[in-house]
Amino acid sequence: MQTAVKKETESSEWIEIGHINDIPRLGARVVSAGDFNIAVFRTENDEIFALRDECPHKGGPLSQGIVHGKRVACPLHDWKIHLDSGEAVAPDEGCAASYPVRIDGDAIYLSLTPKKGCPNK
Amino acid sequence: MKEKLVLIGNGMAGVRTLENLLELEPDMYDITVFGSEPYGNYNRILLSPVLTGEKTIDEIMLNDDAWYAENKITLHKGKTVTKIDRKQRKVIADDGTEVEYDRLLIATGSHPFIIPVPGHDLPGVIAFRDINDVDFMLAAAKEHRHAVVIGGGLLGLEAAYGLIQQGMKVTVIHLMDTLMERQLDSAAGKMLKKSLEARGLEFLLAASTKEIIGKKRVQGVLLEDGREATADLVVMAVGIRPNIDLAKSAMLHCERGLVVNDTMQTYDPRVYALGECVQHRNEVYGLVAPLFEQAKVCANHLAHLGYAKYEGSMTSTKLKVTGIDLFSAGDFHGDEDTEEVVMQDVAGGVYKKIVIRDNKIIGAVMYGDTIDGAWYFQLMRDGTDISDMRNHLLYGQAHLGDAGHGGENAVMAMSDDMEICGCNGVCKGDIVKAITTKGLFTLDDVRAHTKASSSCGSCTGLVEQLLATTLGSDYSDAPRKTPMCACTDHPHDEVRTGIIANQIKTIPEVMKHFEWKTENGCPKCRPALNYYLVCAWPDTYKDDGQSRFINERVHANIQKDGTYSVIPRMWGGDTTAKDLMSLAKIAEKYDVPTIHVTGGQRIDFLGIEKETLPKIWGDLSAAGFVSGHAYGKAMRTVKTCVGSEWCRFGTQNSTQMGIDLEKMSWGSWMPHKFKMAVSGCPRNCAEATIKDFGVVCVDSGYELHIGGNGGIKVRATDFLCNVTTPEEVIEYSAAFIQLYREDAHYLERTAPWVERIGLTSIKEQIVDNEVGRQKLAERFHFSQKYSQDDPWTQRAKGAEAHEFVPMKQVG
Ligand code: SRM
Ligand SMILES: Cc1cc2nc3c(=O)[nH]c(=O)nc-3n(C[C@H](O)[C@H](O)[C@H](O)COP(=O)(O)OP(=O)(O)OC[C@H]3O[C@@H](n4cnc5c(N)ncnc54)[C@H](O)[C@@H]3O)c2cc1C
Ligand code: SF4
Ligand code: FES
Fold first, then answer.
1. Are residues B87 and B129 in the same domain?
2. Nearest residue, CB atoms, A27 vs list B454, B546, B809
């Protein structure tokens, strides 16, 4: 498996969360972080993205949506969310916090410090 | 170096093309725009409400200067291009500005036609085309009293109505003896005249203008027959001519308009053109809906995508005069080969005429009650065979069993705070505001911006009406070919036939074959393709879970809080003490928060955490239960009544009949959900006549009913036929189910499907054709061999385990 995404983060708190094949292509898995979940997505081309598992609309679990291109459709009311930024696809407005992901070989690492700029509301 | 694109004509068609292009390729071109008018881009359609005073100029701006700046477009306002030098590939404007191009886009619109009678150039004589004209009329209305409008068409009447609103006394002069003869037949024209007279307009019909009289300024209009009208202002609204002067001078091939092909290219491959100035397949258009379709195609080619094709449009019109409801579309005059159905209620002010050829609607005129205009237009565009609904066609869709809130209120009569979309709580005022302030033109635009009509869809008709009344015409796409979704240009039927004809076996192969425009589709097309493949290759296709909506992927219904519901089958709504005790024990063991008896005669466990699902399913499976597919586009429930076993009126064993039907059909995937019911007698306690397939037992056997729906739009079933034995019920139902599975579009329930293809066609295939019926039934039974493997038991044993457990626990 080639390295698909490398993302820089200031923090060094990378946590290994599993292997790339733990997530189905065009699918997602959930990482449980205590009081909230993080959805980890895998695209057709094996890019990995992590978003807070709460839709900016009414909190729908994004991990349960249909992944297409670099977007996911929320299962509750079908808002589309950009996987890379966590922003809702226009004209909807809002964002889901986005978490840095690093891939090393087949292993996926996640940082629990969300990228700046999104209050997840 | 970027390529250079120059647009001549800063109007509705040209700028719409740029918008579409920027969406596709924001950085491909250096763009320059020339516009004769000294403004940004505005919504010309809404000049009429500006004239009446209902709107201001600011409110009708579509793109202001900031928009051009943001998109790095150079705008030359108030400059008219006077020369195109095709050799050196540059355009030259009246002030000497020269700009080079790699691609040129001509969208110069139309010239209003001015009748060259003596006096036509007197001060006070104008057309109705742009902001300038409206300013002029508003100023004239302040100082003067008498206005004459020459031309009783759409534009003329809107001008006349506007001037009356501004306090002028207005006379309309029209060459023909009925108004709007291009949109209305004479009966409707007369009704229109009456209501406009009631609003204060005066008319001189069958009137040919001889001269406009006046010395320094217009004073009146003289007709050929000697009649005269006083005027301080004359508005000529007698028609438009494609503005092709510039194109002609550049030696581009022109006929009535500048000639373009299906890719909106002129005879010079570097030069594209669209809008009112062009002639495409011999047609010139004067409404925005077709121009916007052209814009989409043109942008596609400018973006070097190269696959879109414009094939012409069908248009419908509405008059934007407050309080007057009028609709027309297609060929409403007819000829020897056509038939007409007409309803006329002069006192009530209602008139409807539908013109039919070969059982298809080819034109419609409506006055007074236009609520069904959008529906007739749809039937017309789809080429629907209307033989089965002929009798009630004129009464509208409401009388086809549409008891939803779709048809009750004429949208015009609604106040701004009345709710249109009950699912998303969107009011009329919100929608009208979005249409006008955000410059929306299509149903999809309104759905995206307001969410109205984006959920259950029952308010779609009302939203279309609002678009039509706000904007004045029907903004739907080109006729007949509605693509599956934005990822493709192919409609459902084409894709389905293609899958079988070319033996296509996977979703990526379908997308490749049909040149999908997106990487891997969208949530609309992927589930549809997955279903089409399941249906086509039941024995070999490997289901693609990632292309299923979450409910079907995990075989349970997601709830608003992210938990799930679990509904096991209760065959035919029957149960036993033992089954009930098993259910009770399981519910207790898992501390199920809510237990609910459903409308489908079974029991629902609500509020189950996702991780618990496989465990609870394991217990249910051990107790003999299978999945109820309450989550799927699949066979749902078979409701029954107690029938001849107990009921004093029962004629047959309806309970057993229902159980047999459910055992035969459970587990099968469908285009949409599918429900059945069997009632023991015509008292119909199981409500069989609002089901997709309903059986009503009678003394002599069984009545079979199809295409019912108890949901958003209540539709009672159509009667299919009578049969005498349970074996026949099984055979007919299997055949009907398979026909529906193979023919309907994904997410089309039997009710709209039956209406689309017609009861006659279904009877021919199921009732009249014995061999065909048996073949259909056989194919259904064949596919059932592969789908009656209980998905819950599989998952309880570990299938798809990744769905149900977190990948990792952190923090
Ligand atoms: C549970 C139940 C309500 C109840 O508590 O009784 C129910 C619940 C839902 N219905 Fe229903 N419907 C239920 C019987 C009905 C009935 C009555 C019937 O089947 O006799 C109808 C009208 C009959 C009909 O379908 O013609 C009905 C018409 C709808 C519709 C409108 C369908 C239509 O074609 O107009 C929807 C929306 C849709 O399918 O798009 C819907 C959708 C839904 C959904 C799936 C909404 C959703 O997408 O989440 C609800 C899921 C709740 C859940 O998680 O369990 N439900 N729904 C019933 C389950 C029956 C069962 O045992 O499987
Ligand atoms: C009052 C009114 C009401 C209408 N109501 C409706 C309605 O209800 N429904 C409907 O569908 N349609 C309606 N229409 C028609 C609709 O507005 C037109 O079909 C549409 O605007 C045509 O778009 P276009 O881009 O082809 O032309 P325009 O929008 O006319 O744009 C052409 C532009 O090019 C400029 N131009 C021309 N030549 C040059 C040149 N050489 N150099 C620089 N610039 C140039 C013109 O000044 C003009 O601004 C209405 C029109 C009017 C006037
Ligand atoms: S169960 Fe059916 S009627 Fe009730 S809220 Fe849900 S979809 Fe609406
Ligand atoms: S919660 Fe995601 S779309 Fe509503």
1. no
2. B546
| Dist. CA B94–CA B91, nearest whole Å | 10
Q: Are residues B92 and B209 in the same domain?
A: no
CB contact under 8 A, A15 and B810: yes
Count up the domains in chain A and report the number.
1
Q: Quick: pLDDT tens for B471-529.
A: 765 544 444 567 899 899 899 999 999 999 999 999 999 999 999 999 899 999 999 99
Per-residue burial over B192-221, b if 16 or more Cβ lie within 10 Å, else e, is bbebbeeeebebbeebebbebbbeeebbbb
What value of ipTM does the predicted structure carry? Answer: 0.76
B660 and B780 in a single domain? The answer is yes
pLDDT digits (tens, 9 = 90+) for B201-215: 999 999 999 999 999
Tokens of B258: 């500048």
CA B293 to chain centre: 14
Q: What is the dihedral of CA B352, B355, B361, B366, to 10 degrees?
A: -20
Q: Is residue A97 part of a domain?
A: yes
**Cβ atoms of B569 and B662 closer than 8 Å:** yes
B546–A75 CB contact, under 8 Å:
no
In a domain, B533, yes or no: yes
Residue B22: helix, strand or coil by DSSP? helix
For residue A41, list chain B residues with Cβ-Cβ distance below 8 A.
none
Q: Which chain A residues are Cβ-neighbours of B521 within 8 angstroms?
A: 68
CA neighbor of B128 nearest in space, from B196, B199, B46: B46
**Ligand whose nearest atom lies closest to the CA of B747:** 1
Contact A61 B809 (CB under 8 A): no
Q: Quote the Cα angle for B695-B698-B704, to 5°.
A: 30
Rg, Å, chain A Cα set: 13
Distance, CA B541 to ligand 4 centroid (Å)? Answer: 32
